[in-house]
Amino acid sequence: MDLPDGADTRHYLGVRDSIAAHIENGDLGHNACLPSERQLQSGTGAARGTVRAALFQLEAEGLIYRKERSGWYVSPAPIVYDPTRWEGFMSYVKAQGRDPKTELLGTCEVQATAALADIFGVDAGATLYELRRRRYVDDRAVLVETIYVDPRLAPGLLDHDLDGSLTQVLKREYVVDVARNRIDMQPCALTQAEAAALRVKSGLPGLLVTRISYDAQGRVVEYDQEYWRHDALKVSVDIRVG
Amino acid sequence: MDLPDGADTRHYLGVRDSIAAHIENGDLGHNACLPSERQLQSGTGAARGTVRAALFQLEAEGLIYRKERSGWYVSPAPIVYDPTRWEGFMSYVKAQGRDPKTELLGTCEVQATAALADIFGVDAGATLYELRRRRYVDDRAVLVETIYVDPRLAPGLLDHDLDGSLTQVLKREYVVDVARNRIDMQPCALTQAEAAALRVKSGLPGLLVTRISYDAQGRVVEYDQEYWRHDALKVSVDIRVG
DNA sequence: AAGTGGTCTAGACCACGCC
DNA sequence: GCGTGGTCTAGACCACTTT
């Protein structure tokens, strides 16, 4: 690894710049693997801790990501996510020339906690369907989601094919239509469970997207919590005012 | 600092847990200052690097923040931001019982770059107004923004009072009304300029919120780039479907 | 088995905020 | 001027992935 003019690669921001320069020059393509930390070290004369500080910096900026104990890789371009669109993850990822995949991790019936009961307007302890899914772009896991549905609106939902768009299933099989959405987005850290599901280190920054869908009668159709990798996503919304 | 039952405070996740427990128990209120790194060290027997790893973890999670070379502090609750609401930052921060402040950093006239010209539909090199502002919640800087406006829509804009809602000024003084918004949100790292304006360390995670406002004729009214602290913000949107 | 990242230690010096 | 965080060094051992 050579350096741009006169950068001080003994400091972590200098090391950062020299690696960033290689990525931006196109020497390293998307998902390319970086040299090992010890190799980067010998290229710069810095201690390994310094090299790692530079790599953490680039990770926070979304330029690189890591696979546990395997190595550091160049991040691909983020995909654009429009929470107001309804054709679903699978089709808009495809529309951007990327390869989507959804994996159903599991389903179960749960008793509503106080918070869930409040959202659905049911009694605490009422039964709800719970779905956990993991979604991929180009074989990289980018989000895990937990979805809750009221069985009274969609009895027998768990017997259907849930590897695609849930909203489509609800519409087609149960004539349940979404009229309104409440969407929350909040930067967060990926904690134990989400991080494990995404196979990243716990504590990596992420984005929590929460969606509550209502039908025309104001009933809650679907409550969805999506934990995204922070570097996989760009949210874009077009909103009419008034 | 005592510990929850049996946590291993020699490891950074153990140190993290013991500090997090103190915050969540309410021992430390909002904006309270944590003990110094060297004090935390002696309380746990860990090396200072380990203590710092724990603090970085908590920072990524949004529980604490730092003031350069001053110390670590407990993060206050995030404010809720609704990009579809038009009464402006000042009033919705107040509505949440917090104390907002806007500071005009500077204004100027700039020549449109290729990207800006494309957004506004003008020739490259055309003149645009540029405003830079910094906004606070409870005297903590939470965002810096750069706003561009086409002078043909609002001649003499820079002579008005720009410490409040720009949209109000445009509506009141120029009868320019927003009919549509395109809003983009993307996790990012706060780079040099933004980090300096927010007085945080360069590289801290943030959220870039970009808004393009259009009037009923489809003309660009306002182009706004907001760089937010990642722990200051929760985006919440209510959207009608169909 | 070899190599990788993940973690940790125990020092050190500096620039800067605060008093 | 003292204490703080910011940065850096030069080791070490472990758990895991990869070959």
Automatic annotation (TrEMBL), chains A, B:
Keywords: DNA-binding, Transcription, Transcription regulation. The keyword Transcription applies. CDD domains: WHTH_GntR. InterPro entries: Bact_HTH_transcr_reg, Chorismate_lyase_/UTRA_dom_sf, Tscrpt_reg_HTH_GntR, UTRA, WH-like_DNA-bd_sf, WH_DNA-bd_sf. GO terms for biological process: negative regulation of DNA-templated transcription. It comes from the Bacteria. SUPFAM superfamilies: Chorismate lyase-like, Winged helix' DNA-binding domain. Residues 9-77 form the HTH gntR-type domain. Transmembrane segments: none annotated. One of its GO terms (molecular function) is DNA-binding transcription factor activity. The keyword Metal-binding does not apply. This is HTH gntR-type domain-containing protein. It comes from Asticcacaulis benevestitus DSM 16100 = ATCC BAA-896. The lineage of its organism: Bacteria, Pseudomonadati, Pseudomonadota, Alphaproteobacteria, Caulobacterales.
